[in-house]
Amino acid sequence: MSQIDSIINILFNIYFYMILFYVLMSWLPNVRDNFIGELLGKLVEPYLTPFRKIIPPLFGTIDFSPIVALLVLELAVNGLRSVLFYLMG
């Protein structure tokens, strides 16, 4: 069971930091135009898009949807761990 929890933890951390780096890249001009920026965009944008549709940016520039997306991701991982611990005993 600890191996499954370890895999879930590693995957969560990887995706968490992918989202974090993608958000930080938005502060720097032209960084999203390189290969890594485009790759992160293809991996992260499908997850962030529904949150951006629900949560509008404040004052037209401040986007809080990645914060909500990270919180939902954390809740989903904790729920998955709880279900797995319940099923595996």
Can you give keywords for this protein?
globular, 89 residues, mainly alpha, 3 helices, YggT family protein
Structure notes:
The chain has one domain. It has helices at residues 2-25, 35-54, 65-88. It is mostly helical and 89 residues long. Helix 1 packs across helix 2, helix 1 (2-25) packs antiparallel against helix 3 and helix 2 crosses helix 3 (65-88). This is YggT family protein. Keywords: Membrane, Transmembrane, Transmembrane helix.
Write the layout of secondary structure elements.
Blueprint: H1 2-25, H2 35-54, H3 65-88
Helix pairs in contact: 1-2, 1-3, 2-3
Which structural category do the helix and sheet elements fall into?
A: mainly alpha
pLDDT under 50 segments (min length 5)? Answer: none
Oligomer: single chain
Looking at the structure, what is the overall shape?
Answer: globular
**What integer value in Å does the Rg equal?**
15 Å
What integer is the average pLDDT? 90
Distance between the termini: 9 Å
| Number of separate helices | 3
* Range of helix content: over 70%
Largest sheet: none
State which percent range the strand residues make up: under 5%
Question: What are the secondary-structure elements, in order, as H or E?
Answer: HHH
Q: Report the strand count.
A: 0
Question: Please, how many domains?
Answer: 1
Protein name: YggT family protein
Family: Belongs to the YggT family.
InterPro entries: CCB3/YggT
Organism: Paenibacillus apii
